[in-house]
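Methods: example folding runs. The two proteins below were folded one after another, and each record is reproduced exactly as written to the output file, sequence line first and structure-token line second.
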Amino acid sequence: MGSKRHARGVREPTGRFLEIAEREVGRIILDIHDGPVQNIFAALSQLYVVQKRMAQQPSPPGEELERVRRSIGLLENALNDIRTFMGAFRPPEFERRDLVSILEGLVIQHEELTGNTVSLVLDGELPAVPLPVKISLYRILQEALSNAVRHGSANQHSILLRSEGHSIMMEVADNGRGFDVAAVMQRPLAGHFGLEGMHERVILLGGSLSIESSPGLGTRVCVEIPVAARPAATPLPS
């Protein structure tokens, strides 16, 4: 499928680093919720009161009332944007949930937000997956789905999960317009932090990443990450 990009890492896994980074993201999300979100909500509440009182006046000041309405609209949009951002980055209980249920939750969220169709297929049983691997596969899938919509205008996605030897394999394909992988990766990294982020997560865990794509033929992201050989059945939720 057109051009291809491979990356393989030989560094020792740095799971502790990924756990700390994920917890830090969670802390930031809580700070946003307890700070800016509450302040915006309080400002909106005050503006609702002002708008109601102005509208009830015998001769409502039209220009000022319209300015208040526009301000309310801007704050409501800002609040919705922040909540969407928070929903995308809130850790989905990585420690407690198994890999498949975590990824299925992301699939459901993506379908609800975009209206796209996403198929998630589990090929056989999966071994027990360490926390850093759960985090990385979740974030990589999140980025792959987002890129497919934002840059490729995709409306269909397919995900395949399987175990091979002591590794977890994940393939994410879409029907988007695709791109020239080699040309994109040769450009300065500005604007391509998503691809670089996927690459870095895989490298940190000693895995490999390949991206296959070409204009008009969609994109396929293939990830392989080694895990400890501890067989544990992980059924695909019905």
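Second run, written to the same file directly after the first:
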Amino acid sequence: MINLKLAILDMYKGAPNQGMRNIHEIVDGYADDHGIRLEKKVFDVRGKNECPGLEYDAYISTGGPGSPIDAEGWEEEWKNLMESIIDFNSKSESSKKYVFLICHSFQLMCHHFRLAHVSKRRTESFGIFPMHPTFAGRKNKYTGQLPDPFYAVDSRLYQVVKPDSRALHNMGARILAIEKERTYVPLERATMAIQFTPEIVGTQFHPEADPDGMLYYMRNEEKKQVIINNYGQEKYDRMITRLQDPDMIALTQKKMIPVFLDEVLHVNYKEVLTA
């Protein structure tokens, strides 16, 4: 039996969230479906300054609140881990370390490697929005399986824009998806997904979000009123409709992180799978 070692890097700093539950449900369900033994450990990166070493097969680094560009002190260990993983992968031929970066972690990666401009938005983005695969994204294993546009939960106060083509080229990175075009807003479209290296991928949206959990959250009367007060009844109703469409965030949730885990198994455990 395959023993898959997974580190979950909790970037929520103790803030209430749905992301951790979503991630656990996805990876536990994947392990059950594929008959693998999952050895996972959560590291409270921002709250307790915990960070793993290179002893894991895969790493999922979550979203979280606050600024990805204002240093708080814990970032150095996280950045050192990313650099160590990249260095390990460049030297190892027999096995690779895989990383999936979500929202805050994605922004932090772009800022650290100076791949794009990371800045605060004028207003918070919150909702279920269309994302568009790029030319590279349509051929990529993550976004190539999704329609154009595909839909995902977007919840962020910061943005990744103005990608540096030279820095991306030097890293071997490819932009996989960008946000919807808004002809009525004179602002650049944000970069929403990047294949940083063959083993490291990230999204500025939340691919882990599940429709049932979001519906439960949004139908709570207190939360419902907050959303309506901040964004309006029309947007609330549109989000409820999109959550119930199986071709929207449910499809994105089924494709992104499971494909990541497929890749980990197919590269690191190919001999076991074909035995």
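Comment on the second run: The first helix runs from residue 19 to 34.
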